[in-house]
Amino acid sequence: MIGHASIYDPSAHAGCRVLVMRYWPRGVRRSRVDVWLKDAAPSIDLLRAYAHEGLAWPEFERAYRAEIDARGDVLERLRALEREHGCVTLLCHERIPPAEHCHRQILAALLED
To answer: What is the mean predicted confidence (pLDDT) over 95-109?
Structure first.
């Protein structure tokens, strides 16, 4: 099972807790994360384009999927963690309602394919 949550919502964390951010989030103790997988995060250039340069969500999603495809071992590493632990929770700093946008939703969807 693959889930996702904000690193700031400790009640939502189940199984192996995998941080999928390029930078460590402020105020978070290392004990709240089991694995830090920086390679699962969007590139700095892609984050900048989305957050500061007006890149639309569909273009962000296409570009992020291409980045993950280019880093072939990321999905396999996450699937291995799922096999080992039964449940993996993808974590980042975003506090989003389910209908909003976050790269961890894309990553979870890729893992479910």
So the answer is: 82
